[in-house]
Design a protein that fits this description.
By secondary structure, this protein is an alpha/beta fold. It has 2 domains: about 80 residues, no CATH class; about 110 residues, Dna Topoisomerase Vi A Subunit, Chain: A, domain 2. Helices cover about 30% and strands about 20% of the residues. The chain has 7 helices and 10 strands. The chain has a 4-stranded antiparallel sheet, with helices on one face. Strand 9, helix 6 and strand 10 form a beta-alpha-beta unit. It is globular. The N and C termini lie far apart (about 50 Å).
């Protein structure tokens, strides 16, 4: 049996600085914990999660992910810098991960606490750092797997709950992305949630996410 040793891995200073610039606070970074690709972590990711040698090449930040019940699930790698147009990779067959930061597992089960679904894990973590309850997945279609809604959504009480959807800024100018937003909103309403959609201002970037927005806001208020 391969042990989960992620707490022993190292996050390089430049990677921590990158996450800080994305409005992630150190406490949430360390309690996930985010860590850097190095010889030891590459070996672990290959053996535990069957990531390929090609996926493990290059420099990057590993994002451990967790199901809504707190169970560790397939991690994600954020390449720094991106490999061409590719920013992220995940193990094959790992679609439908609905990630909840381990600090927020109990809060997610409280139907009286509003929550926000973000388009990325680090976007959700940035929202948690700002005092809001948030859940993340990979891309606007990340809540789906095998053509249907991820079974992980059934682990989140939604009936009667106030729920927000906060996708990246480009969702509101691209019809293909709007389709995902409409379908996801419909799914949440069918589950009984009271749904709101948050629109990010485009002046922070055509493809900016909620973490980019929070980082800009933090820079504005900084003395």
């Amino acid at each position: 049996m391969i042990q989960d040793v992620t707490s022993e891995f190292i996050l390089e200073d430049d990677h921590r600085a990158f996450l800080n610039r994305c409005a992630l606070v150190d406490e949430l970074i360390d309690s996930r914990p985010y860590y850097s690709l190095d010889v030891r972590s590459r070996t672990y990711l290959s053996e535990r999660w069957a990531l390929s040698n090609d996926a493990l090449r290059g420099d990057g930040i590993v994002i451990p992910r967790y199901s809504p019940d707190g169970t560790p699930t397939h991690p994600q790698i954020r390449y720094t810098p991106p490999k061409g147009d590719q920013k992220y990779t995940c193990p094959l067959g790992s679609g439908g991960v609905i990630d909840v930061h381990p600090n927020a597992t109990a809060r997610v089960q409280d139907v009286n606490e509003p929550l926000i679904f973000a388009e990325s894990v680090k976007g959700a973590d940035a929202l948690i750092g700002a005092g809001l309850l948030a859940i993340g997945f990979h891309g606007v279609w990340g809540w789906k797997v095998n053509g249907g809604a991820s079974p992980e959504l059934q682990k989140i009480p939604l009936s009667g709950r106030s729920v927000g959807i906060c996708f990246d800024a480009d969702v509101h100018r691209r019809k293909d992305l709007q389709k995902a937003l409409k379908e996801f909103g419909g799914l949440l309403r069918f589950a009984g949630a009271k749904v709101s959609v948050f629109v990010l201002p485009t002046h922070i970037g055509d493809k900016a996410g909620i973490d980019d927005y929070l980082a800009v806001q933090a820079a504005v208020v900084k003395p």
